Each structure stands twice: as structure tokens, then as C-alpha cells.
Amino acid sequence: MGRGSVAVRGWAGTRVRSPGLFGVVHLLAPPRVLTNRTEPSDHVDAEHRQHAQVELVIRDLKVQALAHFPSGHYSANSAWTVIACLAHNLARWTALLGLSDPTPRAARTLRRRLFALPGRLTRTARRWTLQLPIRWPWQTDFIEALTRIRALPAA
Length: 155
What we know:
two-stranded antiparallel ribbon
């Protein structure tokens, strides 16, 4: 990147490289939105962020189940789409209720950290136990999510 060039860094802001007294300094600036709308900027920003979340959902569904329709029949593909949306909503609710960090995560990340467990189920004295590897990096996230979901009151 040359002098004065800008690289977009998502919602956290933009990274601006500018020459400083002691070399190149990285400044974090808030993202800018250019629009011709007349509503207040807070309203425009909230709508923009909501639209970005909808696009994340569409991206997740396209990467997962909507990329592989099972049949050439409309009714089978319709049922497949409904089941894919149900699975996506269950994953989102699991992340929302189970994880303490409200940052939206991609479905692939949720699948890797919460659903695809490298453990094994064992049964001892009529009790099922999930044994997780000692050095699994997301062990604390999984246990925290499981504890938070189990602590929810019954409906």
C-alpha cells in the first residue's frame, strides 16, 4: 500500500496508513457512508447494518444447504429449503443464547467451534459422558455455551 491508501477493515473501521514522525502510523478511523438520503445518519447507519446482516444470512445459506439442492422436483427442493432455514435458525439461536460474545459469526465458524466436536461419547455406570480432547482450542467456548443453554428456564 502506498502513501494515503485506504484498506477497508469491515465494521471496525478503516485502516489508514499515513507517514508519521517515527515512520508509518496506522490510524483507525470510523467507516464513512456517502448517501443522498435525507434521513438522520443514525437511521441510515442502522438500516445499513441490518442489510449487512441479511446479506450474511444469505451468504451462509448459499455456502451450506442451498448450494446442493437434492432433486429436480420443486416440492423436494422446497422441503430442502425449509429444513435448511430451520437448521440455520437453530444455529443462530444457539450462538445467540450460548455464546457470551454477540458478534455475528459465519455458519462455518459455528459448525467448527460448537457442532463438529472431536470428542467421543462414553457410557459408564448408566451415564453418558462427552470426553473432549485436552488441547481442543474451543473447549471453553463449547462448555460455556452448553452451560448457558442448560441454565435457560423451561418453557
